Amino acid sequence: MSSNVLIVDDSTTIRQMVKRTMKMAGLNIDEVYEASNGIEALAQLNDHEVAVMVVDINMPTMNGIQLLTRMKDNVRLKDIPIVIASTEGSQQRIDQMAHFGAYGYVRKPFQPEQLRDLLKPLLGVVDNAGSEDGDVDGNLF
Amino acid sequence: MQDQKTATLTAIFSEVLQNLAFMFNDDDDGEVIVGEVWLETEMGYRGPRGGNLRFRCSRDFSILLAANLLGTDPESVDSPARANDAVKEFMNIVCGQLITALHGTEEAFDLTIPELRELQEAPDLSVTRDAQSSTLCVQGHRLQLVYVPE
User: Fold this and answer.
1) What pLDDT sits at residue B123?
2) Containing H/E element for B131?
3) pTM, to two decimals
4) Rounded CA gap, A65 and A57, in Å?
5) Is residue A45's pLDDT more than 80?
6) CATH at residue B96
7) What is the fold, at CATH topology level, of the domain defined by A5-123?
8) What CA–CA distance (Å, rounded) separates A108 from A9?
9) Who among B86, B105, B107 is closest to A13 (CB)?
10) Which bin fits A138, alpha (ψ -120 to 50), beta or left (φ > 0)?
């Protein structure tokens, strides 16, 4: 079973920040793949086995909602855990993402600990970079 | 009402700079760095209500912002595209926070993709009629955020 992660965000800055957060957290990750929109993400998923995805909503070409809709209809992709990292804070949008099968939701700007605590149960850690102050039990959304 | 919206705008502007980039509004009236190249980034949101945001800053500030976001030195921000990307993401986050502050969390809004351009000359940072604006000075750089409700 791979521990590859796919980060889908049109901002290279956010992709770098997410990568840095995962590295600092000591998460058990093999490879990190990147995509700047939903179309690129589907291409990456076609080429690579991915264990977890971190996905933005507001992207050009194919946004996060459209990507999750496409994945939900695909037998091979529908069970990949997806953490949404978005600027949007409406309950309606959060409920919509949960309905499409998202595993968790973190709002930008997020603290590194928030993302780490969402990803840790999915990926595990390789060192002692554990959570001291996070709270994810039953509160993924 | 306009004063209240301007206060909200300033609060969100400052908070996102602090929480995202660890950058703080200068307390004293120190020397202001005059940038040679100015950038203007625009984006908006549509839904039950709509609005547009415009952010103006110098190229020098955009490099500082990118460096802070990436946890690196400004010298390492080796391309304008990287700095532009940081400014656009900053705008994205400000817009998301502003929507929640002004309209609550019940309804969903669609955000437009931020668009950035270089200005031909230094902008007038005075308050615009029919718009709420907030001007900050961060590490000697003047920044302005303007909100225009639809």
Assistant:
1) 86
2) none
3) 0.90
4) 6
5) yes
6) 3.40.1550.10
7) Rossmann fold (3.40.50)
8) 12
9) B86
10) left
Question: Can you tell me which residue has the tokens 């971190």?
Answer: A54
Confidence of residue A131 (pLDDT cuts 50, 70, 90): very low
* Average pLDDT across chain B, whole number: 91
Query: What integer pLDDT is reported at residue A130 of this predicted model?
Result: 47
Helix A91-99 vs helix A64-72: angle between axes, to the nearest 10 degrees?
20
Whether residues B71 and A20 touch (CB distance < 8 A) is answered with yes
Mutation test of the interface with chain A: which of B23, B49, B92, B100, choosing the one with the most A Cβ atoms within 10 A?
B92
Task: Fill in the amino acid letter for B7.
Answer: A
- pLDDT band, residue A92 (cuts 50/70/90): very high
Q: What interface predicted TM-score (ipTM) does this complex get?
A: 0.89
Which of B40, B82, B77, B60 minimizes the C-alpha distance to B139? B60
CA gap A98, B96 in Å, rounded = 19
- The length of chain B in residues reads 150
* Every domain of chain A and the residues it spans: 5-123
Domain, as residue range, for B127: 2-149
The number of domains in chain B is: 1
- DSSP E strand stretches across chain B: 38-46, 51-58, 110-111, 115-119, 132-138, 141-149
Residue B32 has pLDDT above 80, yes or no: no
